[in-house]
Amino acid sequence: MKIARVRTGLATVPLRTPYALSFVTLEAFPVRLVECTTDTGAAGFGEAVALPGYGEETDEDVARALRHLASTIVGLEAEAAIDRVSRDETVGPFARSAVISAIEDVIEPAAMNGPVEWPQVGILSAGDPAACVKKAASLEGFTTIKVKVGRDLETDTASARALLRDGPPVRYRFDANQAYTEDEAARFLDVLGDHPAVELVEQPLGIDEWAAFERLAVRAGVPLMLDESILDETDIDRAASVGADLIKLKLCKARG
Known about the structure:
By secondary structure, the protein is α/β, with parallel strands linked by helices. It has 2 domains: about 5-115, Enolase-like, domain 1, CATH 3.30.390; about 120-255, Enolase-like C-terminal domain (TIM Barrel, Alpha-Beta Barrel), CATH 3.20.20.120. The protein is built from 9 helices and 9 strands. It has a 6-stranded parallel beta sheet, with helices on one face. Strand 8, helix 9 (about 235-240) and strand 9 (about 245) form a beta-alpha-beta unit. The mean pLDDT is about 95.
């Protein structure tokens, strides 16, 4: 089975509600699409979304890398194409993941195209406390709500207190997307205490602040998760060594 054609494209997907991270608010996702077709006529698909903060690649970088990879794998056997893409150090993980996912979709379509059921979480951003409680109450059917924090500590703490006091009886995740200093993160954790409704606090500090994270983990009364800090397999062991309770794995960082 050889790769006969590779097509790439862009789909700009508007969001019903702006997605507010600690460092940017997104109105739409730029989705880079890949279609790999083999000499048998079978086709597979992959995608990459270069979100700010999750890696060094921009959308333009991904687009350029996809064009490059497409030019290098046409005519190769599918497994050889995966090997070629995996070894290409001139491209980043977002583009690499999209192409490998498309090839793997051809090789093992049943593994990727079957029915999948995953628990979903509701999402809201910290803000006016009363508005946060109202928004949380409107997210009917969700058993977990992720709260985006990190833009203003006082707003975050007020929102957290209101949700834990007056919000619906669900689990809450608080995601700071690297926004806090160690002192700010400690103060926020002190507000949460060991409240049983808090499922976790995600990536409170910058990607490389391992020592500070370890100090936070010692004092935290709730589970801590690392997301952006997990760039490869070695970071998984490092996360365990500094006391992280959970990690988040992203396909775009894991080769496909």
